[in-house]
Amino acid sequence: MKKVYLLLTLISISVFSQKKFDNIKSEKLGEERRITIGLPASYEANPEKKYPVLYLLDGDYLFDPFSGAVNYGVYWDDLPEMIIIGVHQNKDGERYDDTTIDQNTGLPFEKGADFFEFIGAELVPYIEKKYRTSPFRLIAGHDTTASFINFYLYKEQPLFNAYICLSPELAPKMEVRIPEQLAKLKTPFFYYLSVADGDIKKIKEPIEKLDSNIKIANNPLINYKYDLFKNTTHYTEVLHSIPSALYQIFEAYRPINSDEYNNKIAILETGYADYLENKYNEMSKVLGVQIPVRMTDFKVIENIILKKNAYDELGKMAEIGNVNYPKAMLGEYELGLMYEKMGDPKRASKKYQNASQMEPIGDLNKDVMYEKIDEMNTLSKKP
């Protein structure tokens, strides 16, 4: 129990050590708007690293639960670090003014139109100029703000790459317009939708219709998830939705687990090294997350290559090793392993010798290389 408490304490420190506030002067709104900013714990230590950005409407009460979920996922390396921006909307009815719509057109109106422009034309450019951001943007909201974020989908090029809609109180015609827009998209896109079984009929029925229409649209580029949470209310379902949404969107980021191995890797007849390369390319291109190939993932693929006797793929593994860890012995070791398994101990010995002059990595070190060299030299002397 003490260990669990210590873990939660460390995560809590991680969450709030980089939390700060800022005020943005908005010409669109004619006033200053306060925001909460959560920077990753590694932000100062990695001056070249860029981070995805999660924008939160209703930041007054959504910031802390989102921040806690993100940091918990980061601790276990299931989620990437990201910058979190919470927009304050709790002063003198700001929330309802910000989400004002024309009931006839179903579009932002008056103060709502100004707030729409504030987010897209002022807040996002301000954050991207001031902080090191990747191109991947997420946005989330709850009830009326969850509905409001969908207006950015109405643009030909949506402003955000991922939308998290928690029990949205949908604007008129939205259950039809959103699927129409999703059907047109030609790049990978993420959409999360949730509702509580305790939500009122006025909220639930349009959401259910929206879910049905999105499924009918069936665009393969849309990564879509719908959650109906039992025994929850309009407010308690939020705490169920947040981790579900984040883990859906960043599923490709997670280290290889048993489910991915059994359902995606083990069923392959070939192309194991390509699978590993594509996994990390998708992280970079789609999610805007650039990290070296994890050694745990590398070893998973190496092991299945050996198990399937696909030794020629070790050459591609060597390329991946050299790209991700150019100073380490990983790439040369993989070539040595390839020649060893193909019955060429002399060439294997040379590669292991090259590896012994490079930096250790994981469970590979000079002692391992010297043992392999001796083993290959002994084999090469046999008839």
Can you walk me through this structure?
This protein is α/β, with parallel strands linked by helices. It has 2 domains: 2-253, Alpha/Beta hydrolase fold, catalytic domain (Rossmann fold, 3-Layer(aba) Sandwich); 258-381, Serine Threonine Protein Phosphatase 5, Tetratricopeptide repeat, CATH 1.25.40. Helices cover 49% and strands 16% of the residues. It has 15 helices and 10 strands. It has an 8-stranded mixed β-sheet with strand order 1-2-4-3-7-8-9-10, with helices on both faces. The chain has a two-stranded antiparallel sheet with strand order 5-6. Strand 8, helix 6 (174-184) and strand 9 (189-196) form a beta-alpha-beta unit. Helix 12 runs antiparallel to helix 13 and helix 14 packs antiparallel against helix 15. The longest helix has 20 residues, at 111-130. The termini are far apart. Mean pLDDT is 93; it is low at 1-17. This is Alpha/beta hydrolase-fold protein. It holds the Pfam family Esterase. GO terms for molecular function: hydrolase activity. TPR repeats lie at residues 329-362.
